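Input record (one chain):
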Amino acid sequence: MSKENSVVAVYHTHTEADKAVKELQRGGVDLHKLSIVGKGYHTDEQVVGYYNTGDRMKYWGKVGAFWGGFWGLLFGSALFIIPGLGPILAAGPVVAWIVAGLEGAVEVGALGALGAGLYSIGIPKDSVVKYETALKTDQFLLIVHGTAAEVAQAKDIIETTHPAYHSLHEADAVAA
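The corresponding structure, as predicted from the sequence alone:
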């Protein structure tokens, strides 16, 4: 398990998450260290489809501009159908963490692929369960990982965006 410093924020809507990403970008946070995960739809929306062209994935649906913006900014994007969560969209390093969980057939207790991916970077199981619950209720996860200083800077910016809640996960605290 590779422990990393991270801050995870939960937002009720894609609009709130989008504003937070823009604030992080304005604040100088390295977008290669930022991930976003969400269902990408609500019950009144219908997904028309997804496709991949080169290094970008396209989403045809009500919030297509929201996801399209992230796929242009963040490295890596994917659609996963995860038992218990259903279809989720992800962009950023979290995609590699989930894939590693899937490829290694890693399941940590009751955690699925997303949970195993988050746990693999040092996010505690109880927090992972909380984040999976947020996704089940159509909320969005914004994750920033990096050095203690980078994560502290991101946390300060995130606090100004008024997430539903956020948590700091320090590599040293996890390792202790």
